[in-house]
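In this supplementary section we document a worked example of the pipeline. Step one takes a protein sequence of length 79 as its only input; no multiple sequence alignment statistics are reported here. Step two produces a three-dimensional model, which step three serialises into structure tokens for compact storage. The input and output of this example are shown verbatim.
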Amino acid sequence: MTSTTGTTGTTGTVCPYCGWPDDAEPFQVVSRHATAAGSTVWTRCGCGSLQVRAVDAGGVRVVSRSRPADAPAARTDGR
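The serialised model returned by step three reads:
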């Protein structure tokens, strides 16, 4: 399974909301932007999670992702 720090810094290889592999289809490319190191690609997972992918000489990695619109927010009040 994947671990995340908040909604950024994904260290796993699957979506934490639906379990779909990050490198598998289908995902929808929302936009693509050139950077000095390669590119940034915004994608949407099949479950609806919006993901930011960094593409550079090191490969492709998900660097940030949102919850799907229908996923409950995590509680931070300790209850």
